[in-house]
Amino acid sequence: MTARSVRTGGPAGPAEDADDLDVEEALALVREDNGSAHRGHRPPGPPPQGSGPAAPPEAHHRATPWPEARATAARAARAVTRSARRAPVSVRLDDALGLTLAAPLDALTDLPSFDTSAMDGWVVAGPGPWAVRDEGVLAGHAESAPLTDGEAARIATGARVPPDTTAVLRSEHGRTDEKGRLHATRDVVPGQDIRPRGQECRSGDQLLPPGTLVTPAVLGLAAAAGYDTLTAVPRPRVEVLVLGDELLTEGTPRDGLIRDALGPMLPPWLRALGAEVTAVRRLGDAAEALRKAITASQADVIVTTGGTAAGPVDHVHPVLDRIGAELLVDGVKVRPGHPMLLARTKENQHLVGLPGNPLAAVSGLLTLAEPLLRTLAARPAPEPYTLPLRDEAHGHPYDTRLVPVVLRGDSAVPLHYNGPAMLRGIAAADALAVVPPGGARPGQEAELLDLPWASAGIGVCFT
User: Fold this and answer.
1) Single pTM value for the model
2) Max CA-CA distance within the chain?
3) 54 phi-psi bin (left φ>0, alpha ψ -120 to 50, beta other)
4) Which Gene3D superfamilies does the UniProt entry name for this protein (predicted)?
5) How far is CA 261 from each of CA 22, 66, 351, 421, rounded to the nearest angstrom?
6) Which residues, in sequence order, are CB contacts of 336 under 8 Å at separation 6+?
7) 20 to 30 Å CA-CA from 454: which of 31, 102, 133, 311?
8) CATH match for 90-109+200-233 among 3.30.43.10, 3.90.79.10, 3.90.105.10, 3.30.70.330
9) HEC per residue, the chain
C-alpha cells in the first residue's frame, strides 16, 4: 500500500470538527430544490413569485454539506447506542472477526504457561561436554525428569523445558563426538533460547482494552490466552429494500428493463462495513409494499435503493412522512448521490435512502451508511489521509464530488467512467477521492476514502 499523509484540514473541510455540529443544524437544512429530473434526482422547483432578480444557484442549493451529513449519521448512531444500551454478545472465535471487543481481553493464564524451548536443539545442564539422554523432549508431552549437571537431551521447539535446565543449545551450535558426547561450538549463556513462563503476560493481565477491533491477530491472541468465545458489540442488523419495477434479476437488459446492480452489490458491501444483512427484498415501485416493509422491519438499519426524489413512483419521502419518520438528512451536497437521505423511523431504527444510480448509491453508502454502521458496531474511525492527485479531477460548481481513483506510488490517479450510473470506474478503484467544489488540479492534495477490500483492513471479510 502506498504511503499516506494524515489530513489536518482536507479539501472538504476538517472531519474532526464535523462531530461538533449540532443535529438541529442538520434538521434545519431544507430539502434540496435543484437537480436533474431523471429517476433518483429531485427536479428543480419553480422560482418564487415576485421575488425580483433570480437568486444565485447557491441560494437554491440547501442540502446538507457532505462533512455534516457524515457527522450527523455518526451522531444518530451514538444516540442509539446511548439509549438502547445494546447488550454485548458472546461470540465464538470463528464468528468474531470484524467485531469490536465489549470487554477487556484479560489473560486467563501465564503466556507461556511453562518454560518453553524457543529452538530445536538440546537442553543442557551445567558446563559441557554433556552426556545425551536416549529419550528426547517433545512438544505436547508431560514434564520430563530434571536434568543433572553434565546431562543433555534432544528438545523440539515449543516443548516444555525440564527442571534444572541451564540453556537450550541450538542444533546448529552443537556437535557430538565419537563417544556420543555433546560439545558446544560457541559459548553457552544461561537461559539462552528459553522462553520463561509469563514472558508475554501473567494471568489477569489486560491484553487488549474494550473497543479493540477483532482482527485475525486478535483471534490468535485470544486463543493463545485460553478463550473459546469473546464478548463483543453485536453487528448492526440491516435489511435491504430494492425498489424499481424496471429491474431484472437475471439475463441481459431488454425491453426497457435493466439489470439490478445494487441487489448483488449492497449485501457484501454492507457486511464489509460490519453489518449483518438479514434480508434483501425486491419491492418494485409499490408504495404500500414499501410502507409495510419499513413498519414491519426489526432491523437496526433499513437501506432502500432508488425512489428518493419526487417523481411519480418515488415513494420514499411520502412513505416516511406517512409513518411519521424524522428526516435527519434530506439531500447532501455531494455528486454523485445528492438525493440520498437519512431518517429515524423508530426510536432505535434508521433508514438510509440511497439513490437508484449505482455509483450514486456507492456515494450514499460511504456518506451515510458507513459512519452510521461503524458507530453502531463501535468500530474505530479510519484515520483520515490525503494524497496528491496525479491528474486533474473535475468538480461540481457547488458540491463535493467523490471520484474513483487508483493508488500509484505516492499519488492517486482519477479514473474515467465515473458517472452516477456507472460502476466501471469504481470496480477498478482503490479509493474515492474527495474533490472540493470547483475541482482539483494535478498535484493537489485530496482526502481519500478507502474501499473496504482495498485498504488491507478487516473489511476484506464479506461474511
Assistant:
1) 0.76
2) 113
3) beta
4) MoaB/Mog-like domain, MoeA, C-terminal, domain IV, Molybdopterin biosynthesis moea protein, domain 2, Molybdopterin biosynthesis moea protein, domain 3
5) 36, 25, 20, 10
6) 355, 357, 359, 360, 363, 402, 419, 420
7) 102
8) 3.90.105.10
9) CCCCEECCCCCCCCHHHHCCCCHHHHHHCCCCCCCCCCCCCCCCCCCCCCCCCCCCHHHHCCCEEHHHHHHHHHHHHHHHHHHHCCCCEEEEHHHCCCCEECCCEECCCCECCCCEECCCEEEECCCCCEEECCCCECCCCCCCCCCCCCEEEEECCCCECCCCCCEEEEHHHEEECCCCEEEECCCCCCCCCEECCCCCECCCCEEECCCCECCHHHHHHHHHCCCCEEEEECCCEEEEEEECCCEECCCCCECCEEECCHHHHHHHHHHHCCCEEEEEEEEECCHHHHHHHHHHCCCCEEEEECCCCCCCCCCHHHHHHHCCCEEEEECEEEECCCCCEEEEEECCEEEEEECCCHHHHHHHHHHHHHHHHHHHCCCCCCCCEEEEECCCECCCCCCEEEEEEEEECCEEEECCCCCCCCCHHHHCCCEEEEECCCCECCCCEEEEEECCCCCCCHHHCCC
Place of cell 432491523: 299
How many other C-beta atoms are found inside a 10 Å radius of the C-beta of residue 69?
28
Would you identify the CATH topology of the domain 116-195? Molybdopterin biosynthesis moeA protein; domain 3 (2.170.190)
The whole-angstrom separation of Cα 412 and Cα 389 is 5
Q: What is the pLDDT of residue 128?
A: 86
pLDDT bracket for residue 33 (50, 70, 90): very low
User: CA 276 from chain center: how many Å?
Assistant: 13
pLDDT at 372: 97
pLDDT at 222 over 80: yes
Quickly count: other Cβ atoms within 10 Å of residue 210's Cβ.
16
pLDDT surpasses 70 at 14: no
Q: Label residue 85 by pLDDT band (50, 70, 90).
A: low
Contact 308, 340 (CB under 8 A): yes
1-41+59-86+234-463 maps to CATH 3.30.1490.20: no
C-alpha cell of residue 206? 489486560
Q: Where are the domains of the chain?
A: 1-41+59-86+234-463, 90-109+200-233, 116-195
Q: Is-contact 141 185, C-beta < 8 A?
A: no
C-alpha cell of 107? 489473560
CA dihedral over 440, 339, 430, 70, signed as positive or negative: positive
